[in-house]
Amino acid sequence: MVMVATADLHIHTVYSDGRDPPQAVLRRAAALGIKTLAITDHDNTNGVRQVQTLAQELGLCLIPAIELTCRWDLCR
């Protein structure tokens, strides 16, 4: 039996360290059969804001997420 992933909960776009704009990320995810995804850029939600309508049009469940930068050295 072959398992096919239908979710990716950690995707970066050009607003972080990814290579593609949010629109291209969603279109590729839909083409690959992904049904649920989270754009998880570093320290911003710019990508998610741009593609909420597109996600609905493509039938994707888009989870807003963020990867926060934390610095332990500030607590000294």
Structure description:
The structure is a single chain. The protein has 76 residues and is of the alpha/beta class. It contains 2 helices and 3 strands, in the order βαβαβ. The chain has helices at 22-31, 46-58; strands at residues 7-11, 36-39, 61-64. Helix 1 packs parallel to helix 2. It is globular. The N and C termini lie far apart (52 Å).
* N-C termini distance: 52 Å
Helix tally equals 2
**Largest beta sheet, briefly?**
3 strands, parallel
C-alpha geometry: globular
List low-confidence stretches: none
The neighbouring-strand order within the major sheet is 1-2-3
- Estimated radius of gyration: 14 Å
Residue-averaged pLDDT: 92
Beta strand count: 3
Strand content: 15-25%
Helix content: 25-40%
Compressed to H and E, one letter per element, the order equals EHEHE
Look at the helices and sheets and give the structural class: alpha/beta
Topology:
Blueprint (H helix, E strand, L loop, with lengths): L6 E5 L10 H10 L4 E4 L6 H13 L2 E4 L12
Parallel strand pairs: 1-2, 2-3
Helix pairs in contact: 1-2
Primary descriptors:
76 residues, alpha/beta, 3-stranded parallel beta sheet, 3 strands, 17% strand, globular
Concise synopsis of the structure shown:
With 76 residues, this protein is α/β, with parallel strands linked by helices.
